[in-house]
Amino acid sequence: MKNLIWIMTLLSICISCKKSDFLDKKPSTNIAEPTTLTDFQLLLDNTAVMNSTGGLAQVSADDHIVSYPIFQTATATERNAYIWNKDIYG
Fold it and tell me: Does residue 43 register a pLDDT over 80?
């Protein structure tokens, strides 16, 4: 019985390791990439996005419950993250 388990485990590992080409697909080319120092500085200077949404993972986690008055005082982005809206930044 123990040998059968080892054989089944080895067989399932060998079958699951087949090569697939999903890693060979190229990403979309319409994505803008920062290349110069000015581009990176412009990203860092965009404080409306770069510095205000760092806690969205905690807001959308199920570790805490927010009361309705506190929910109403949150920003639209925080409220959308809390209720798992499809478009958080909408």
Answer: yes
pLDDT in tens, 53-66: 678 888 888 888 88
Provide the whole-model pTM. Answer: 0.45
State how far the Cα of 81 lies from the Cα of 74, in Å rounded to an integer: 11
Name the H helices within the chain.
2-16, 37-45, 47-50, 56-59, 68-73, 76-82
**Are 71 and 79 spatial neighbours (Cβ–Cβ below 8 Å)?**
yes
Say how far apart CA 22 and CA 62 lie, in whole Å: 33
Backbone angles phi, psi at 32, to 5 degrees: -80, 130
Gap between the Cα atoms of 49 and 89, Å rounded:
10
